[in-house]
């Protein structure tokens, strides 16, 4: 009977040593675990600690009326602009886009290959020729990696002679004005 107890304690001791070693291994990879001397404290914190990217991605996009804030085109005129035109997203991570429209016209962010077609609500034209911005919120989760072109499907850039709606070098509308790319990268990358 005594022998039995002794071997049980021996096993318990070896088990503790193994857990301690495992704890050291994971501590080396996680700076957050540096203060925890107990494996019991370290385990819950490892599962609770998530980077903001893992919880979700939030981005703000602005729609600018050609005059005065739209980007200047090769004709040296300001044109209707959706900025930023290129967005980097993580695959499988929910995205919330907040789109603030400072233009009195409606626009879209349409990316057929990504399966999204965002209808951007128009800003409110005021009597003094200013525009009260209107916000559109859109949520989606990119499921595949790659570069996905988007463009606006509504006639716009009237003040700029509709130049932003003319075909860019790689598809409908001018890139950097009413077209651009969603760049979806694999989740877990340390690049962002
Ligand atoms: Cu547009």
Summarize the structure.
The protein is of the alpha+beta class and 192 residues long. It folds into 2 domains: 2-48; 55-185, Sandwich (Immunoglobulin-like). Helices cover 24% and strands 30% of the residues.
Distance between the termini: 59 Å
Instruction: Label the overall shape.
Output: globular
Succession of helices and strands:
HHHEHEEEEEEEEEE
Report the major sheet: 4 strands, mixed
CATH class of the largest domain: Mainly Beta
Strand order of the largest sheet: 2-1-4-9
What does this structure look like?
The protein is α+β, with helices and mostly antiparallel strands. The chain folds into 2 domains: 2-48; 55-185, Immunoglobulin-like (Sandwich). It contains 4 helices and 11 strands, in the order αααβαββββββββββ. It has helices at 2-29, 39-48, 52-55, 66-69; strands at 57-64, 81-83, 86-90, 95-101, 107-111, 116-120, 124-125, 131-132, 134-140, 146-151, 179-185. The strands form 4 sheets. A 4-stranded mixed β-sheet has the order 2-1-4-9. A 3-stranded mixed β-sheet has the order 3-11-10, with no helix packed on it. The chain is globular and about 45 Å long. Residues 80, 107, 152, 154, 156, 178 line the site of copper (II) ion.
């Amino acid at each position: 009977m005594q022998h039995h107890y002794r071997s049980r304690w021996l096993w318990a001791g070896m088990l503790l040593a193994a857990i301690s070693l495992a704890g050291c291994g994971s501590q080396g990879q996680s700076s957050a675990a540096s203060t925890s001397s107990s494996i019991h404290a370290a385990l819950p914190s490892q599962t609770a600690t998530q980077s903001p990217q893992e919880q979700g991605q939030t981005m703000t996009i602005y729609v600018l009326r050609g005059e005065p804030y739209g980007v200047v085109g090769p004709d040296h005129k300001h044109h209707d602009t959706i900025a930023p035109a290129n967005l980097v997203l993580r695959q499988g991570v929910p995205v919330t886009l907040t789109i603030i429209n400072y233009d009195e016209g409606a626009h879209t962010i349409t990316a057929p290959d990504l399966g999204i077609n965002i209808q951007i609500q128009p800003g409110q034209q005021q009597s003094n020729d200013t525009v009260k911005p209107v916000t559109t919120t859109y949520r989606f989760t990119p499921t595949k990696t790659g570069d996905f072109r988007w463009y606006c499907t509504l006639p716009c850039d009237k003040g700029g002679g509709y130049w932003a709606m003319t075909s860019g070098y790689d598809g409908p509308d001018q890139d950097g004005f009413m077209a651009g790319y969603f760049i979806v990268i694999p989740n877990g990358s340390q690049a962002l």
